[in-house]
Design goal:
The chain has eleven helices and ten strands. The protein is an alpha/beta fold. The strands form two sheets. Strands 3-4-5-6-7-8-9-10 form an eight-stranded mixed β-sheet, sandwiched between helices. The protein has a two-stranded antiparallel sheet with strand order 1-2. It starts with 12 loop residues before the first strand and ends with a helix.
Length: about 325
């Protein structure tokens, strides 16, 4: 006869913005629907990952963007590295990454990222960055150096980059793609009608052109993009964006729920139920995406390794 589990050892559903490691002091205590409550994993793996990153003086988007999946991902020793510092030169209204004047790039950072990826035993390494409009090359050479450093230490790893738009400068996009990441991700974030409110300083057509340029110059690279839902988009808006992405030969789509991380960011207009996310996943596959990750907690790099395996399986089956 088995004994009843200790109630203290059973993970409890937690509001993602009430985890003290994620929530700023001014975060709103929104009433979330039941499908937006997560069980935080037990164990000390999260503390070990945090100690490793702190010891190497590295940043992650998991922390800076207050991702609700941090504990889950770090418990699996998966983290998304954020290079070029933790201060952004853009003022996107959905993001909590600090804004201002960044410090100069650290030339030793690419090697520290590669070392951390090796210590974590990562087979799939995701690297993103803040926007660096203050730099002549907007950080493109730093991305390339980081990709090469990871390749040198982990030659068999999948390397995924999630880049800014480089203000549409094609040579800078090429500099990153020429370093041969496996996956080149650039997020549209929202539908074009909402860009002035959500993503000032960015351009919808500019982002589409970036993704098309990568695929044209490096057809072997997997291109990927994602959007947040719940900011005021309509079904018609989203349908057109999915069609635009496929017209620009994007392979992978991610769709997740926008969650307001603090009072300084835009409010949530709507919580999208799981069945709608499932319907959009089906629609994405109908349109020809090789992989679609669609759900309330989906983020660009959430379960990125599983998403990539789906790409290989569908491509191997001859899906166009």
């Amino acid at each position: 006869m088995t004994s009843a589990p200790d109630p203290a050892a059973v993970p409890r559903p937690v509001h993602p913005l009430r985890d003290p490691s994620l929530r700023p002091l001014d975060a709103p205590r929104e009433r979330l629907p039941p499908w937006l409550k997560k069980r935080l994993p037990l164990g000390d793996a999260v503390a070990r990952v945090r100690a490793l990153l702190d010891g190497k003086e590295l940043h992650t988007v998991c922390q800076s963007a207050r991702c609700p999946n941090l504990n889950e991902c770090w418990s699996r020793r998966a983290a998304t590295f954020m290079i070029l510092g933790d201060v952004c030169t853009r003022t996107c209204r959905f993001c909590t990454v600090p804004k201002g004047k960044p410090a100069p790039p650290d030339p030793r950072e690419p090697e520290r990222v590669a070392g951390a990826a090796e210590e974590l035993g990562l087979a799939h390494v995701v690297v993103t960055s803040v926007d660096r409009d203050d730099l002549l090359d907007q950080g493109a050479s730093h991305f390339a150096a980081t990709i090469r450093a990871i390749r040198a230490r982990l030659p068999g790893a999948v390397v995924e980059v999630l880049t800014p738009d480089f203000r549409g400068v094609g040579s800078l996009v090429d500099a990153v793609a020429d370093a041969e990441p496996t996956i080149f991700n650039h997020n549209l974030e929202t539908v074009p009608r909402l860009y002035p409110r959500v993503r000032p300083g960015a351009g919808y057509e500019r982002s589409l052109a970036l993704l098309a340029r990568v695929k044209e110059g490096h057809p072997e690279q997997v291109t990927k993009s994602g959007l947040m839902l719940g900011l005021g988009e309509t079904a018609e808006d989203l349908e057109q964006v999915l069609r635009d992405l496929r017209d620009h030969r994007v392979d992978v789509l991610t769709l997740g729920q926008y969650l307001r991380p603090s009072l300084a960011q835009l409010p949530v207009e709507r919580f999208v139920p799981p069945d709608e996310f499932a319907a959009w996943a089906r629609r994405g596959r109908e349109l020809g995406f090789l992989s679609v990750a669609s759900g309330p907690f989906v983020r660009s790099s959430y379960n990125a390794d599983e998403v990539y395996r789906t790409v290989g399986a569908r491509a191997g089956a001859g899906t166009s």
